[in-house]
Amino acid sequence: MDFPGLASRLAMVQDRILQHQAKGGWTHPVRIVAVTKTHGPEAIRAALAAGLQDIGENRVQEALAKQELLPEVAARWHLIGTLQRNKARHAVGRFALIHSVDRVDLADELARRVTGSARQAVLVEVNCSGESQKGGVEPASLEALLARIVSLPALELRGLMTMAALTIDESAQRAAFSRLRSERDRLQAAGYALPELSMGMSGDFPVAVEEGATMVRLGTLLFGERQP
Q1: Of 46, 41, 34, the residue nearest 64 (C-alpha)
Q2: Which of 32, 107, 149, 199 has its CA 20 to 30 A from that of 46?
C-alpha cells in the first residue's frame, strides 16, 4: 500500500487543528488541501482513500498531467502555486479554486478565458511577510485588486491566501497570518465577501489555525519528503 501511515498522520493533523482552533477561539471548519506536487498519482489515490477530497498542485502542467491519468477520481483540484499569465488558458475550468491571483492582468486574463456562463473561483494572494521574493499583492494594493475582480462576472472571489516566511520563529509566522486576517476583516467590513483564508503549511499550520485559517495546505506532513 502506498503511503501506509497516511491515515494516522491525517488523524493527528485533524486533532491538532481542533486543539489550535480551540486555542484561537474559532469553531469554523478547516479544510485540508493535500499538496501532492512532485508525488505521483498514487499520492492522490491515497489521499482520497483517507477521506481527503481537496488536492493541491503548484504547477499547471503537472496538475493537468495527473488529471489526465486519473479521470475517474472525484477530487477538488486546487492550484496553489504561482500562475503565469500565459498559463491562464490552461488553468481555467481545470481547478475548483486558484489560490494565487495577485495582479490585475492575471485576473483579466483568467476572466477572458472563462467560457459561457461558467465562473472560475479564485483567491487573492497577499504578501504579508514583506519578503521581496514572495509572490502576492502588497497589502496597500489589495483593495484595488479585489475591486477589479468583483467587477469581472466570470470570476468568483472566494477569499485571500498568504505564505509566511520560512522560519521557525512563531512570532514571525503569526505576524503574517494575523495581517491577512486583519486585512480580510477590514475588507469584509467594506463590503467584500471573503469567506476563505488559505494560510498555513506543514511547518506552520498550527499558528495559521490559531489565527483563523479556513484552509491549510499540507504536503510533507502527510506524504513525507517530496521526490526530487
Answers
A1: 41
A2: 199
